[in-house]
Fold this sequence. Notes:
Elements: H1 2-17, E1 23-33, H2 57-75, E2 84-90, H3 93-100, E3 111-114, E4 124-129, E5 134-142, E6 154-161, E7 164-172, H4 180-203, E8 208-214, H5 222-227, E9 230-231, E10 240-241, H6 244-249, E11 255-257, E12 260-262, E13 265-269, H7 272-275, E14 281-284, E15 293-294, E16 301-302, E17 305-306, E18 310-311, E19 314-315, E20 325-331
Parallel strand pairs: 1-2, 7-8, 9-10
Antiparallel strand pairs: 1-20, 2-4, 3-4, 5-6, 6-7, 8-13, 11-12, 14-20, 15-20, 16-17, 18-19
Helix pairs in contact: 2-3
Amino acid sequence: MKKLLFTGLFALLLAACFAQKPYKVVFYNFENLFDTIRNPEIKDAEFTPEGPKKWNAVKYERKINNLSRVLFDIAAIDKEYPIVIGVSEIENRNVMEDVIATPKLAPANYRIVHYDSPDLRGIDVGFLYRPDVLHVDTFHTVEADCGYPLTRDFAVIDGRIDGERIYVVAVHLPSRRGGEWSERQRRACVSQVRRMVDSVREADAAVKVVVMGDMNDEPHNRSIRRDLGARGRVDGDTHLYNPFAARRRAGRGSYSYDGRWNMLDQIIVSPNLVSGDVGGLRLCRIDGRAMGRVFRREWMLRGGVPYATYRGSDYEGGVSDHLPVYVILGREEKAARN
C-alpha cells in the first residue's frame, strides 16, 4: 500500500514539475571549432587553408550549419530553445557569434559569455544563454590551477532564473593522454571546482549549482566520484548529484573511443536541485524517466558513433566527435502536495 501511495505521489510530483515551462540546460563539445584565420599567438595553423587539414570557408560554413542544426533539433524536443548551452573547443568569440547568427538559432536571441584562455591551441570554454530567461548578474573565468601545461579556464555564470539564484560552471578538463600524469591534472582541476562550489554554497545555502563540461573522465572515475564528490544518487547535502552516472551504467555514452562508449560529457547539480523546496527550481525527469540525456539523431552518427568533422587528418564533414548532453529544470506547483 505504501509503495502504491509513494508511486502515485511521485507521478503527481513529476507531472507538477512539467506543469510550468521546462528549461533545457545543454553542454556540447564543438570539436575544434576554429575559424580559418591564422592567429600567431596560438597554435591554430592546422586549421587554416594552408595547414595540413586544409580548413577553408566551405568546410567552416558546413560545420557552423551542422552545429546550428543540432541545437535547433534539441530545441525542437519541446519547441523551446535551451536557456543555457555550455560549449567547449571554441577558438574565439567570433565562431560563437557565427553559430547563433544562423537562421535556425537567430530567433533565440542568444547572448555569449566568452574569454580567451591560456590553452596553447587557443581552444576555450564558454556559454550561450537566453537573456529572456536567464538573467546574468556576473560572468567571469577562473584560471585552472591544474599544473603545467596551462589548460582551459573555467567559465562561470552567476545569475537568476525567475529571481532564483543559479551558479553555473563549464569546464573542459585536460585530455586523457598522458596516463597517470594527466589523471593527476584532472583531479587537481575538479578539486578546485569543488572548492569553488563549496565556497558559493557556504555563502548562500539556497543557491542552485550546475557544473557541466567535457570531464575527460567518466562518472565512476576517482576525479568525479571522490574529488568532485558527484554521485549517482542524492546522499544528503554533501555530495553533488550526477544524473549521467545512471546513463553510463545503462551503457550510454557521449564519446566513442576504440569501439567503446564513454560518458565524458556530464552535467552535475547541487542536491537542492533534486530535493529542494516545492515551488523552487528542480531537476526534472525527461519523458518520465532519466534525469539526464545524451542527445542523438541518426544524422549525427556515422557507423553508429558520433559523426566527426575529422578522423585524424581525414576530413569527414560531420558535426562533432562528441554528442551533446542535457538536463531539464522546472518548477513544482505548490498545490502538488496538498
